[in-house]
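STRUCTURE:
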């Protein structure tokens, strides 16, 4: 028996009619001059001509956008998520029944899981998410980025229709690639403005390059209905940069001050409990840093009800910031070093010996040991493939749940398929240190950055003029473990760590937490275990 339960209708809503698929989100059809489909049109798009798995796969491969689809037709059940798993779907079987839902807790109850899986729980403590198809509960599975499932004659299969695999590297000059990148940006943001359809674009504008690119490109295309905001401790340097950029572009800007009271009030509220459950914490920890700011701006009626949030995820990853300089020291590399690099950079929320990580998680890494890795390029391709499907798709992109919780739609233009395809073909040397993108930014944003003194030297000089806490925050990154984390507790930019009582914070550090998030995860897992 097939049981489908789709209930999450904040932000994007599920669209369904008798005899048609369930669809949510939006797509551009690559094979139809990027025609835009949403709501009823999206329903028709996925309902036409899909009678077998091959037709479903081909339809998915022709899409660009952010969506989930469930289609029950004839003897088949099809389901898929987009290339980033931005709208999660969960599935499981039990006693001859097949269950499919956007609510992991509902599915957990149907399959009868009462206890968390020990290995998944240990992984969650170290990364903040569960890798592969697994979740915290053994019989609750998740569709992965770029994946679809077929249920037919009581048999369940899953298959990738897309992988973020860097290949076919361009031999063109940096100058030509920069010109092409600018053309890609124009097309990507033209698609964005088409999907906005005049609604207010709300940009969480940080001090970095990615959200700045969004603001600059919207201005360049003449889209004026834009609001920018930033948040953190009063007068933090990123908010100062954000305000300067918004002012230069002529966009409205709002700052939201984070402090102990704001965090404690929210953390102790019923709203927080509801958000935790809504955020699908069975597969990754709730991403909470945006939520108080969005709630505050909505309460002040700054953000219209039909606004669309446009964050800068994850231009830095695509352009190369996750490439380690350890790959370039001239040695012959290996798959084993790839695995150890993943353990070092991603399994890092707690201080655990490398040997213990190997002992616990090597079975999850077995597929990586068969890879042919000897060069930095091969290493970066494999590392980025893992990062895309695990950290980016399951943790970073899960941040959009905060916007949905406020019943707001969102867009992720820097994950547009054309953007992904462009960066897949950029050679290692141009991605190392984000070299090509920085050259692009210097050419197309250089005048603004110089006018606002947003060069690296200008930012460093600005920090020297800020309160001592800001400069200490930079210096403390290089200082020993306990002083750094105690300083973070009292003076961190987001003030988020103060939701943890100081004695619990100190105890967590002593017990091996390498990041404040690890202490929150311990409490979260206790709550999940009690949430039957």
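SEQUENCE:
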């Amino acid at each position: 028996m097939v049981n489908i339960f789709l209930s999450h209708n904040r932000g994007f809503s599920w669209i369904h009619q008798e005899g048609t698929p369930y669809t949510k989100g939006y797509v551009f059809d690559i094979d139809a001059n990027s025609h835009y489909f949403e709501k009823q049109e999206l329903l028709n798009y996925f309902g036409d001509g899909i009678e077998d798995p091959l037709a479903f796969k081909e339809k998915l491969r022709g899409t660009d956008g952010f969506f989930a689809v469930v289609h029950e037709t004839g003897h088949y059940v099809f389901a898929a998520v987009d290339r980033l798993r931005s709208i999660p779907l969960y599935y499981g079987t039990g006693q001859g029944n097949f269950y499919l839902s956007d609510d992991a807790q509902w599915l957990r109850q149907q399959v009868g899981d009462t206890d968390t899986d020990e290995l998944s729980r240990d992984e969650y403590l170290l990364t903040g998410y569960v890798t592969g198809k697994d979740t915290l509960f053994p019989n609750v599975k998740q569709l992965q980025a770029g994946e679809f499932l077929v249920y037919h004659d009581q048999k369940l299969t899953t298959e990738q229709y897309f992988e973020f695999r860097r290949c076919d590297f361009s031999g063109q000059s940096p100058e030509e690639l920069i010109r092409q990148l600018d053309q890609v940006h124009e097309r990507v943001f033209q698609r964005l403005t088409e999907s906005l359809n005049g609604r207010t674009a709300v940009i969480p504008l940080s001090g970095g390059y990615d959200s700045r690119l969004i603001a600059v490109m919207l201005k360049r295309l003449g889209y004026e209905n834009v609001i920018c905001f930033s948040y953190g401790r009063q007068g933090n340097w990123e908010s100062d940069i954000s305000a300067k950029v918004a002012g230069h572009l002529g966009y409205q800007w709002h700052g939201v001050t984070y402090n102990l009271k704001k965090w404690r009030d929210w953390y102790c509220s019923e709203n927080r409990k509801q958000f935790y459950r809504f955020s699908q914490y069975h597969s990754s920890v709730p991403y909470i840093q945006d939520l108080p700011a969005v709630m505050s701006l909505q309460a002040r009626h700054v953000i219209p009800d039909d606004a669309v949030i446009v964050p800068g995820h994850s231009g830095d990853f695509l352009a190369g910031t996750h490439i380690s300089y350890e790959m370039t020291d001239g040695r012959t590399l290996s798959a084993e070093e790839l695995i150890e690099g993943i353990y070092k950079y991603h399994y890092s929320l707690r201080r655990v010996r490398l040997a213990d990580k190997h002992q616990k998680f090597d079975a999850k890494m077995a597929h990586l040991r068969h890879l042919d890795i000897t060069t930095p390029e091969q290493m970066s391709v494999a590392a980025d493939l893992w990062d895309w499907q695990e950290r980016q798709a399951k943790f970073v992109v899960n941040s959009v749940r905060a916007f949905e919780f406020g019943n707001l739609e969102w867009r992720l233009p820097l994950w547009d398929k054309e953007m992904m395809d462009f960066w897949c073909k950029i050679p290692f040397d141009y991605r190392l240190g984000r070299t090509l993108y920085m050259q692009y930014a210097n050419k197309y944003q250089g005048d603004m950055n110089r006018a606002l003194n947003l060069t690296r030297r200008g930012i460093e000089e600005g920090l020297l003029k800020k309160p001592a806490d800001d400069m200490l925050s930079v210096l403390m990154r290089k200082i020993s473990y306990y002083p750094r984390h105690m300083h973070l507790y009292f003076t961190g930019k987001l003030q988020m760590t103060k939701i943890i009582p100081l004695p619990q914070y100190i105890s967590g550090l002593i017990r091996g937490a390498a990041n404040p998030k690890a202490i929150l995860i311990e409490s979260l897992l206790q709550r999940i275990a009690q949430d039957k």
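REMARK: The longest strand covers residues 63-73.
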